[in-house]
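Researcher: I'm preparing a figure for a lab meeting and need a structural model of a single chain. I don't have an experimental structure, so a prediction will have to do for now. The sequence is pasted below. Please return the structure as tokens so I can convert it later.
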Amino acid sequence: MSKKYTGLVSAILAIPLLVFVPVIAFSESPPQNQLTSGQKMSIEGHAEEASLLEQRMVEYGFSPTDLNEFRSMLKESEAKELPVDPLIQKVYEGIAKNIKPDNILHATYQVQDRYRRAIHYTQLLSDIQSDNGKLTEIIAQAFAAGWEGVDCERLAQQLKEQIRNMNRIERRGLIEETMLTARDMARRQVHSSTVSNVLSNALHQSYHSKEMSELRHRFSIQAKWGSPENIAMEFAESIGRGVAVHQLGEASATLDSGTSKGLSGNNGNSGGSAGGNGSSGGSSSGSSSGSSSGSGGGSGGSGGSGGSGGSGGSGGSGGSGGGKNR
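Model: Understood. Here is the structure written out token by token.
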């Protein structure tokens, strides 16, 4: 074959290479919304769950950057022995509520931070490693409800000192009941500092787990019928004065009852005053006026439900006497 034809064949054969090289290079890159095999999401001991989660996130519209960020978050949580299930559930919750992927990721960071702080306080207060997950969950729930770290820190330090001389069972019971009470109050929208004030006063009064449980129960019942914040503030004040736990809330009920009785007594006094006016009328008039005043006194007696009403009746009698002397 001549050199002329050889060069032509070579040129023709080169054309498909020029066409397909870019295609081959592109096909080796991962699709835009998937991770490479080395970047697959992993959850220790839950490979299938991780695969399903990744697939759902891709379908929802999480970018590769978002997926890698969440994967790193899971790895960090596992390395620090933080629970990963709350993070996964937060993602599914966000998807169900049609939240934007960026906002879902932000929410998962907040969840991770809550559990990080909750574990810190669990380790500060408890030396019972076998059941720390329960206490961590309670504290994290209190944070989620609005209890702030600065108020938790203040109470945790006081609680740590309080349990120093208790046995293990007593310590565990008081810690859990204290944190359960904090969580329940926070869930009722009681201000964070008020929550800690109530519990701090209870610890000052040497509450044990039984008393703390009773405090929580009484708050739950009374918060159904009034302002949780006001009830909590009243509890803090009463506990600080040394009111027994089984009497918490009774002071306000007694006060309301006393106020009603006072109003009733005032009505009786008004009746007595009417009788007194009848007496005055009797002393300045003739017999007919005295009769009229006596009638006024009788009316005063029936109007007063107490001793003051009786005084009104006495005034009426005086009026009658005045008429006779006339």
